[in-house]
Design goal:
The complex is a heterodimer of chains A (597) and B (159).
Chain A: E1 14-18, E2 23-27, E3 31-36, E4 44-46, E5 57-62, E6 67-72, E7 79-84, E8 88-96, E9 107-118, E10 120-127, H1 130-133, E11 135-136, E12 140-142, E13 145-150, E14 153-160, E15 166-168, E16 171-178, E17 183-192, H2 201-220, H3 229-242, E18 243-244, E19 249-250, H4 278-287, H5 291-304, E20 327-329, E21 340-342, H6 353-369, H7 374-390, H8 409-427, H9 436-453, E22 455-456, E23 461-462, H10 477-481, H11 489-502, E24 503-504, E25 507-508, E26 523-524, H12 525-537, H13 541-552, E27 564-565, E28 572-573, H14 579-596
Antiparallel strand pairs in A: 1-2, 2-3, 3-4, 3-5, 5-10, 6-7, 7-8, 8-9, 9-17, 10-16, 12-13, 13-14, 14-17, 15-16, 18-19, 20-21, 22-23, 24-25, 26-27, 27-28
Helix pairs in contact in A: 3-14, 4-5, 4-6, 4-14, 6-8, 7-8, 8-9, 12-13, 12-14, 13-14
Chain B: H1 2-25, H2 33-38, H3 45-74, H4 79-105, H5 136-158
Chain lengths: 597, 159
């Protein structure tokens, strides 16, 4: 297939489509190489992204050599890829359809092929591999439709004007030739714990059009009109793909184990929701007029954390469960980057910064909604009490290091932020006030600790951890979180130090020190946008805008970002699309708009 | 005895439904009787399930009356005999009722009579319901034996 090396496409060659329950990654060459069913955190059915031989995929492309360009249909998450061969041009529209009246499949991947000019021979092949590639599909005809099933999940392949279907071991497909104005449709219908619903062609095409209209309706409701509106809207749509509609949780990314280093072991499952992202998420959603999504996420967060209350786990399952046991899968890994993991062992780490983010989110939520309900207020107060008990302990920090716990300075700063928000909420009457005195006292203590032990006079910067002399990009968050006045001399100096020591061009590394893992990683996209936001909040709008322009140019052809970018090659690294990258982009744009106005 | 059979039918349907649901959770089958029944009436998924559950309980009571007729005719009513009727019930459902009759009467399920282009909306169950998972018939037999035993047991208590 075009553009593949060792059977793998570059990560930046993927675009994401989704339906609020699951996400598929579609390669520039027309292959759906990633799709978990029925939900985003279920086992993969198409997993060629992580194992080109055993993973399974749904290929749909011209048989001959071709060039391809693509875009999202404006203001939608529906992908349109145009392939051009020596003999003609063909357009493919891909979507995970949204329900639109009538009896709809549990999930549905729709692919429409339209001839544009000339004639193009198209080939397609559906090769599902259930349970992360461990089980080959066996197709049988049920009611004339090819069906493959594994336990709870079944898929059916319906094709109209798409050639004579031929089945072989574990796969089926066909070839057909397009002509100007010709149209073929392929649909992968999915059932989970129920009989399959087989669609009719008209139903699929109606749902496809309805899906386009639904996305446009959602996009039209976004209120942002500042600079880089199209880019911000694309990020909002990417985030919406990661919102798990049944619960309101937001997955950190749509994939597992796309590597932070090609061939390395820094491969993690991000199909969970991180409470840490709460403040970024609410800030971004509220800036875009997504009040409904913001409320749903905050409610989910408090619901999910009920069983571990007042402690906050680092991450929760999208259905609110606390179990995230990490295991290794028998997949080769993206370009040999093993292991491939399902589950995330960071779930039970102590990460103190989480509390600052969650209380910041509570403060934002209370501001927009005029307060917190009594039960939420009581629970937020109990979380603040816990911060008083915990802040002196070493933790794993925001980067979830797997080395020994340390006194990470950003973690302590966020404890101060947590207590600051608790005091403010109590003073506004939104929290029980019995502990306010203790919160104020501990806030003073943690700030004194940070100022005495967390700032290096030689570096002129806050440092990564007490006792070392390294800077860390997470310290940029002290500006946006309101640890101090954004223009406070120490914060200004820290922003400069991070830029000086960790930035390579527009891209910012997380840190340069030890983290208990072998290998290295790329520049962290979110950190790069945090630098933009920090500069904007410090009034350095021109610097921020210039940097923003450079970073926007580093997105892929459809405006998506992975977790990291290799500074030298520009290659994407890590999971895709990465919610935190898009959250940071949105918040950076909003900060520039705010500073400029 | 008729009231015993009806109460048994109600309790038995609860057990049967729970058993099939558990089998579905365990990945043994994709059989969903309320979904199949309800989609004959409504294309709205939520409404179909609700209606399907109601219909399922009505049918559970109707079948319990059928069991009662057999108990009355034979003069035998106990859990063992009920279990035997449950086995026959399951085999009848798998070979005729659900796999042959339901596709014919269900307005949204495919049959061999459908012409090209009239693609069915719902996956047909196939002989012994094997299309919904190879363990479907096993789950159906176990669930119906439990149903029959409960109907027989309650009928004998009320005799």
């Amino acid at each position: 297939m075009n553009g593949r090396s060792d059977g793998f496409l570059p990560i930046r060659d993927y675009a994401a489509i989704g339906d609020g329950r699951t996400v598929a990654l579609v390669g520039l060459d027309g292959a759906v190489d990633w799709l978990c069913l029925p939900d985003i955190d279920s086992p993969s059915v198409f997993g060629a992204l992580l194992d080109d031989e055993r993973g399974g995929r749904f290929v749909l492309a011209p048989s001959a050599m071709h060039s391809s360009v693509r875009r999202y249909l404006p203001e939608t998450n529906v992908l349109e890829t145009t392939h051009t061969t020596a003999t003609g041009t063909v357009r493919v529209t891909d979507a995970l359809t949204l329900p639109h009246g009538g009896l709809t499949p549990y999930r549905e991947l729709a692919r429409r092929v339209e001839g544009v000019d000339g004639s193009v021979e198209m080939s397609w092949r559906v090769e599902p591999r259930f349970a992360y590639g461990s089980k080959a599909a066996v197709f049988r005809r049920h009611g004339g439709i090819p069906v493959a099933a594994d336990g709870r999940v079944a898929v059916a392949v319906s094709a109209w004007d798409a050639g004579d279907v031929v089945a072989d071991a574990g796969a089926l497909g066909a070839s057909f030739t397009t002509s100007p104005a010709s149209s073929a449709v392929l649909a992968l219908s999915v059932a989970d714990q129920e009989p399959l619903v087989f669609p009719r062609r008209g139903d699929v095409e109606r749902r496809l059009e309805g899906t386009i209209a639904s996305w446009r309706g959602w996009a039209a409701g976004r209120s942002y009109d500042g600079p880089w509106r199209d880019v911000v809207l694309r990020s909002a749509l990417a985030l919406k793909l990661l919102v798990f509609a049944p619960s309101g949780a937001i997955a950190a990314a749509a994939t597992t184990s796309l590597p932070e280093e090609i061939g390395g072991g820094r491969n993690w499952d991000y199909r969970f929701s991180w409470p840490r992202d709460a403040a970024f998420t609410l800030q971004a959603f509220l800036s875009l007029g997504c009040g409904q999504e913001a409320s749903a996420f905050f409610s989910w967060l408090l619901h999910a954390s009920q069983l571990t209350h007042p402690r906050l786990q680092v991450l929760y399952r999208l259905n609110g469960g606390a179990d995230a046991e990490e295991r290794e899968l028998a997949l080769r890994g993206y370009r040999g980057s093993a292991p491939v993991r399902a589950g995330n062992g960071a779930a039970h780490q102590l990460q103190l910064d989480v509390y600052g983010e969650v209380l910041s989110a509570a403060a934002m939520y209370a501001k927009v909604n005029g307060g917190l309900d009594r039960d939420h207020g009581r629970r937020i107060a109990e979380i603040a009490d816990l911060v008083c008990d915990l802040w002196r302990e070493p933790d794993a920090g925001i980067w979830e290091v797997r080395s020994e716990p340390s006194h990470f300075v950003q973690s302590k700063m966020m404890c101060a932020v947590a207590l600051d928000r608790a005091v403010a909420l109590a003073e506004a009457g939104h929290l029980p006030s019995r502990s306010v005195g203790r919160w104020q006292e501990e806030r003073r203590a943690v700030r004194a600790f940070v100022e005495a032990n967390g700032f290096s006079k030689t570096k002129q910067s806050y440092v990564r951890a007490v006792g070392d002399d390294e800077v860390d990009a997470s310290l940029l968050l002290a500006v946006s979180a309101g640890y101090d006045d954004p223009k406070a001399p120490r914060l200004t100096a820290t922003v400069d130090a991070v830029r000086r020591e960790l930035a390579r061009g527009p891209l910012v590394q997380r840190y340069a020190g030890e983290d208990g893992l072998e290998g290295t990683d790329g520049a962290f996209v979110a950190c790069s946008f945090w630098l933009v936001e920090a500069l904007a909040l410090q009034g350095r709008v021109d610097e921020a805008s210039a940097l923003m322009e450079e970073l926007i140019a580093l997105g892929n052809d459809v405006g998506l970002y992975a977790e990291e970018i290799d500074g030298a090659s520009g290659a994407f690294l890590g999971n895709l699309p990465q919610g935190l990258s898009h959250l940071a982009l949105i918040n950076a744009a909003v900060a520039i708009e705010g500073a400029a106005s | 005895m008729i009231w015993g059979a009806l109460v048994g039918g109600l309790v038995g349907t609860v057990v049967l439904t729970t058993g099939l649901r558990a089998a579905s959770e365990l990945g043994l089958t994709r059989m969903d009787l309320p979904f199949l029944l309800g989609t004959a009436v409504s294309v709205d998924r939520a409404r179909a399930k609700l209606i399907g559950y109601a219909l399922h309980f009505v049918f559970g009571l109707v079948f319990a009356l059928g069991y009662w007729v057999v108990f009355a005719a034979t003069g035998v009513s106990n859990a063992w005999f009920g279990a035997l009727l449950g086995l026959l019930h399951a085999l009848f459902a798998g070979t005729a009722l659900v796999s042959v009759v339901l596709p014919v009467v269900h307005p949204r399920m495919g049959t061999g009579f459908d012409a090209a282009g009239d693609a069915p909306l719902l996956e047909p169950p196939g002989f012994m319901l094997v299309n919904y998972g190879r363990q479907t018939q096993l789950a159906m037999i176990v669930a119906h034996i439990a149903y029959g035993a409960i109907v027989g047991g309650f009928a004998s208590l009320a005799a």
